[in-house]
Every structure is written in C-alpha cells, then in structure tokens.
C-alpha cells in the first residue's frame, strides 16, 4: 500500500513488516486535485493547485496530531497501474468540510455553523456512504485499468473528527451523531455502530443514499457496493441502469 509522509510529503510504498498507523482524509473532490504522478514528479504547476494546498494542510494537521503517515485518495492511488491496491486498516479519519466556516471567523456563531454543516457538499456525495467489507476491512472495486480499495467514510472508522475550511476542529463525530442523522436521514444506530448496518432492511439502506450525488452516473450504483457487501467489476460506460441491475443481481 502507498502512504504519504506527513512531514516530507513523500510517498512510501514498502514497509518492512506491519503497515504503520495512519489517518485518512475524507473530502469532496474539486476541480484542481493533485494526482499521484504530480506528487511524485514534484510538479511546480501541481503545487499551485487547490488540491495540493489541501494535501499540505491535511499533512500538517496529521503531523500535529501525532501521525507520521496519511492517506489521500487523489494522490495515494496511481491510476496508471492496473495492479494498484490500497488497503484501509486505519482507525481514525479526518473529515474535511471545505465549505463550512469556522466559528472564530467572520462573526460565525455555533447556530450559523450548524446551518453551514447542513448544507455541506460532503453530506451529499455518494462515495462518502461507503462501508468496508467486514472481513477485508475495505471495499475492493475492480476496474479494468485500476483496482482500488474505497474506504467507508460516513459509516467509517470508529474515531472520526470533523474540520472546518480553515482546518480547525469542529467537533468529534460522537458528539454530532444526532445532527448527522438529521442531515443524512441515516439511522443514528448505524452512524454510531457500523456492525448494526446489516440489521437494516435493503429499502432503508437504499433510502440513506437516495439523495446523494456522484460525478458519473454509474458511481451511484458502485458506491453502494460496500453498503450491501457486494463485490462486482466497475465498468464505466455501461450506464446506471445496467450498473444497478448488476448490483441487484
């Protein structure tokens, strides 16, 4: 697996024995994300991107919190490598709400910040409802040119912390369960304990994802694989109807 060193911003792929503890960045993609190849080449143009700024801020925060390594999907996956596999075995996640203002800025109070959170794009994206496979602790998605392990995020590692656009801490996940349940319509029991998810009926789990959005039509089906413990090849171009039929079968 490939991890990002939080101090040097260098990639490390080989570990002598056990993979060290690391923190995942859960975020929504923008128009200027930085790829693995750009990070590897230390491309000057890439360093001016908003995505690179996000990575550096994340690494600085992770380092302050005592983590030597971090994982960001945009730059830790080499999309040119058909054998790429990233295993998510972390126990902590930093959730970056880039459209939520911190309380300390611009006269924002707690009530206004809650309103920003309710409108945050992070809660509307399909991939943030991913759930890890209970055995592999990851959701393996096989793509013709790429194999990825998508981490469960909204229903994710037990330790989660939410951060505002300036990377200041909003709160710990467990203190926001009622609010997140209200925003997402996901049962609070599932948000609190991922092991309860299989106890919810298919219709209820489908309802959790019904208002979410994805960039590609097929991703709406693919992003549900973890939620229903289904494994199937990702075939972009097949259309959402075929993707959903395969998901149901």
Question: How would you describe this structure in keywords?
Answer:
single chain; 249 residues; alpha/beta; 7-stranded mixed sheet; two-stranded antiparallel ribbon; 9 helices; 9 strands; 27% helix; globular; HET; Heterokaryon incompatibility domain-containing protein
Number of strands: 9
Give the overall average pLDDT.
77
Q: In total, how many domains does the architecture comprise? A: 1
Strand content: 5-15%
In sequence order, what are the helices and strands, one letter per element? Answer: EEEHHEHEHEEEEHHHHH
Please state the overall shape, judged from the principal axes of the Cα atoms. globular
**Fraction of residues in helix:** 25-40%
Largest sheet: 7 strands, mixed
- List the total number of helices: 9
Category from helices, strands and their pairing: alpha/beta
Give the end-to-end Cα distance, rounded to a whole number of Å. 31 Å
Strand order, largest beta sheet? 2-1-4-3-5-8-9
Low-confidence stretches: 85-90, 129-155
Rg is: 18 Å
